[in-house]
Design a protein that fits this description.
The chain is of the alpha/beta class and about 500 residues long. The chain has three domains: about 210 residues, Spore Coat Polysaccharide Biosynthesis Protein SpsA, Chain A (Alpha-Beta Complex), CATH 3.90.550.10; about 180 residues, Spore Coat Polysaccharide Biosynthesis Protein SpsA, Chain A, CATH 3.90.550.10; about 60 residues. The protein is built from 20 helices and 15 strands. The strands form two sheets. Strands 10-9-8-11-14-13-15-12 form an eight-stranded mixed β-sheet, with helices on both faces. The chain has a seven-stranded mixed β-sheet with strand order 3-2-1-4-6-5-7, sandwiched between helices. Helix 11 links the parallel strand 9 and strand 10. The relative contact order is 0.10.
């Protein structure tokens, strides 16, 4: 599927993030969680509108002050440790975290995103169509922040809280406390351990707190407090938190990711898998904050009923593994996507292992080690070869359980809707965005095809398919031969053609 089509489908469904752990940890009720989820998937209900839309009249306004996550231009102090792609991914997920928190605030608190770089369309592509986006003003940090407060005051806001996105400990209670403090104080500050602040709230703009300030040092908080004292500005300090700015701060980020337990959507395409789907879904359902989604491609048996009986959400789609998986991805708001096969059993604790892997900003995605459910030396050799390919070539396949951040799925264009090798195509695109890891835990998949035609023949044909695909042979021709279960000998002329450089297509 072309990237624009995938992007459109994801945004249409409400391409936003709900952190269910955040909801629980901040005492949100079940009904609040459901309301937020409903809002995320309802384009007509927008708590934030675009700059070109209606003017905000909220007396209480939260401003998320950030930079657009562009490779090489954000988190530059992290680049030596994470690489440009990892630093960009870190910035993106930090923005996502703060926006998740903001969406759980009471509806009488308005929210705007004031962004340096990017534009409204790209911000909405990444973070949801509901965003109220405003570009930042020109000038240094102080001038840009001051202009945020002035603009808000001109539009009728009376209590304005501005937050950055570098603090993973930001929470709903902290933001509510900031607004409460502004009822009795002129200014509220959220100090950080490095001598700065991650939050500032004002009742009216205070130029003295911003103009002529030297930023980016450990004296910012102290100087701000001194200026407030000189100007008779009453200040309330919140709890001291941690910023994530330098490589040595990364453990703080990793812990925050794991503590939040970001939701996982496990998407399983299925077609006439009545006998296999129940156990697969049952294993997925054991995960914490994991949503099993089975996308049925028109089964003639009880596949859908068996999946629903195990607690899966069942969607319908036209047949084709790529189309089915794209459909599942478009119908969830989960931060993390996991794609597995109907006859694959994920390892115990798969959800924890996935979150631990993705907590490293260098990691764009990954998969588990492959294990077949049969015995025999030949199957063990096939596993060994597949796991070597996955680990050293960073080329896992769908029967290993491919996982990734949804934002990276969107950026990679989703699964191209080709009849075969759609997983390899996605993985190749994903490798350009960061590293892919192969976790040591094993995903056990059915060896039924290997038993049917023989392990050696099945292995040879799989290699032929990969080679011919990479050489530009039409996936439709490859899929036709694969499904007809043509023997090794029938594949050799096509392999020879591919070896000589002939190509019949390549989308």
């Amino acid at each position: 599927m072309p990237p624009d089509r995938v992007r459109g489908r994801l945004i249409k469904s409400g391409m936003t993030t709900i952190d269910m752990f955040t909801c629980r940890s901040n005492n949100a009720t079940h009904h609040q969680i459901r309301a937020v989820a409903h809002f995320m998937k309802t384009p007509s209900r927008q708590p934030f509108s675009s700059e070109s839309g209606p003017v905000a009249v909220h007396r209480d306004l939260l401003i998320v002050f950030t930079r657009f996550p562009e490779r090489g231009k954000v988190k530059t102090r992290m680049i030596p440790s994470l690489g440009a792609g990892g630093a960009c991914r870190l910035q993106r997920e930090m923005i996502r975290h703060v926006l998740t928190i903001s969406r759980l605030l009471p509806p009488d608190i308005g929210v705007e995103v004031h962004c340096d770089g990017g534009d409204e369309r790209r911000m909405k592509d990444l973070f949801g169509a509901d965003l109220r986006f405003r570009p930042q003003a020109e000038g240094d940090l102080g001038r840009r922040m001051l202009q945020c407060f002035r603009s808000a005051a001109e539009r009728g806001a009376r209590r304005v809280v501005l937050v950055g996105t570098d603090c993973p400990e930001m929470s709903v209670p902290l933001l509510q406390q900031a607004f409460d403090r502004l009822r009795s104080h002129d200014c509220v500050l959220g100090p950080t351990e490095d001598g700065g602040y991650c939050l500032i709230g004002l009742r009216i703009p205070q130029p003295a707190l911003f103009e002529g300030m030297t930023w980016g040092n450990d004296r910012v908080l102290a100087e701000t407090l001194a200026r407030a004292g000189d100007g008779g500005i009453s200040v309330s300090l919140l709890a001291r938190l941690h910023d994530v700015d330098r490589p040595e701060d990364l453990p703080i980020w990793r812990k925050a990711v794991l503590d939040r337990t970001p939701p996982i959507a496990a998407v399983v395409p299925a077609l006439d898998e009545e006998n296999a789907i129940a156990e697969s879904v049952a294993r997925i359902s054991r995960g914490v904050n994991v949503e099993p989604i089975v996308v049925d491609g028109g089964s003639g048996d009880r596949t859908a009923a068996a999946a629903e009986a195990q607690g899966a959400r069942v969607l319908r789609s036209r047949p084709g593994r790529a189309a089915q998986m794209n459909t599942g991805a478009a119908e969830t708001t989960a931060d993390i996507l996991l794609f597995s096969h109907a006859d694959t059993h994920l390892p115990e604790g798969f959800d924890r292992h996935i979150r631990e892997a993705l907590a490293d900003p260098r990691t764009a995605g990954g998969a588990f080690r492959l294990r077949f459910d049969g015995a025999g030396v030949s199957l063990r050799l096939v596993e060994w070869g597949a796991n070597l390919r996955s680990r050293f070539l960073q080329l896992p396949y769908g029967d290993q359980g491919i996982f990734l951040w949804r934002a990276d799925f969107l950026a990679a264009g989703g699964f191209p809707e080709i009849p075969i090798m759609e997983d390899a195509a996605l993985v190749r695109a994903l490798r350009k965005r960061g590293r892919l890891v192969t976790l040591p835990q094993r995903a056990v998949t059915s060896a039924r095809r290997y038993r049917r035609i023989g392990p050696l023949s099945a292995w040879c044909i799989n290699q032929f398919v990969v080679f011919c695909f990479l050489r530009g042979i039409d996936p439709n021709e490859l899929a036709g031969r694969y499904r007809r279960q043509e023997g090794v000998a029938r594949w050799l002329p096509l392999v020879w053609h591919a070896l000589r450089g002939g190509r019949t297509r390549h989308n």
